[in-house]
Design goal:
- The protein is 28% helix and 38% strand.
- The chain has 159 residues and is α+β, with helices and mostly antiparallel strands.
- A 6-stranded antiparallel β-sheet has the order 1-2-4-5-6-3.
- It is globular and about 45 Å long.
- The model has no long low-confidence stretch (mean pLDDT 93).
- Pfam families: 4HBT (PF03061).
- Keywords: Hydrolase.
- This is Hotdog fold thioesterase.
Length: 159
Amino acid sequence: MSADPAQSAALPHWRALESLYASAPINSLFTSQLEIPAEGQSRITYAVRPDSFHAAGAVHGTLYFKMLDDAAFYAANTLITDRFLLTTAFNLHFSRPIRGGTVIAEGRWVSGRRRVLVAEARLIDETGEEVGRGTGTFMRSHIALSGLEGYARAFRAGD
């Protein structure tokens, strides 16, 4: 059985997006890893640390936003191979506190392919419970992906 040609052609872009995520300075503050399994999908695994807790001993809302926004963003950017996307709006819903462990942010593209894209994400704690959900809109920027070191590095590594 042969691989899907469209997916095979997209793999370098997906690996470059994973490299871009890893290269972002903000991610030095978060123990996380991005995986892009298919077009329009992303999965980010986070190891929650106590230094991300608010005073009541659970993860602060800024981390929920970071995880959900990143997962939705990268799911959408799988469809755009030339430009970096920008978040223009994000709606966030908290459903349960996160008190530690490993959390998975699953992103999924919903609609749009030209100028504006919509994607959603959900957070799953290590017991399998959904702890948060969000939907974002993303638009193409003037920033070429190929001009971003973290993205371009993946192509040089493949040479």
